[in-house]
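Sequence in, structure out. Go.
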Amino acid sequence: MNEKVKKWLIAAACVILAVALVGGIILLTRPAAKPADGDGATEAPAAEVTETPAEETTEVPAEDATEAPAEEMTEAPSEEVTEAPAEEATEAPAEEAAAGGDDRLAVIKEKGKIVIAMEGAWQPWTYHDESGELVGFDVEVGKLIAEGLGVEAEFVETDWSSILAGVDSGRFDIACNGVGYTEKRQEAYDFSSVYVYTEMVLVVRDDNEDIKTIEDLKGKTTANSPSSTYAMRAEAAGAEVKYVDTLGETMSMLEDGRVDATLNDKDSVDSYLKEHPEAKIKIVQTVAGEPVAIPLKKGAETDTLETEINRILDEARADGRLAELSVKYFGTDLTKAQ
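Output:
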């Protein structure tokens, strides 16, 4: 074989070998590429990306966003906001109206009691006897009024300074405590008809020779309950008033020389001297006091109550019961103007 033929055969063999190698490489690499490009990239991911997310994104959220919130926002709140408040707003006032509304007399009769304020430490008007029982002229007047109204009397003992304030606020229906009627008080309270006419006395220590009349109080000191008619009279005369709560405190300050005098109810001072004959005090002047009436809260709501109280007092005055009570506690009839 010549040299030229050998070269050609060798070249052909190399070509065949090269083709075979390329083919083998293609066969070896093609099966591995098919799962990566087909099953994993197209079929399996397609099921996850399109089908499953679509079900979660459209169907489930749609149920949460439209149906459940709609039920919460429209039905439940609507029931709470409209029905419950409407029931409270309409039924409660109706119950108050049934109990008398703004008519104090109707309320008293509905409750079955009248609340009466008093000090409980001002003899002979309201005080406690030796057994501790609450007694006095105004205690019996309060019972008389309650009986005339067909209800029970509930007595509330408090300081004088709280009595009129309690009537004004509505805490007390009335006050029975020897309350003096004045034109100034009439501006703030309504009053019943007068049922007692009192006298006022000027009291000093038994060794005091400087004070003889109310005019002598100018520049002096007195002891009295705040806002009482006696305090007002003393201040009008030019005295400096030191406030106390009870008659006992007043007399103690007077005897100790802490004040120069006091203006007070004659019958109360007489009762004090009767119980304390050793007291170092004396009465130097007696003058007319303020007429006594029953204070009520000012306004139309007490009009019918005032009318009924006046009726009861008029009947008790006419049949002698008021005069009998006055003699029992004051020793004389103070139900008539002097």
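Check: The first strand starts at residue 113 and ends at 118. Confidence is low (pLDDT under 50) at residues 31-100.
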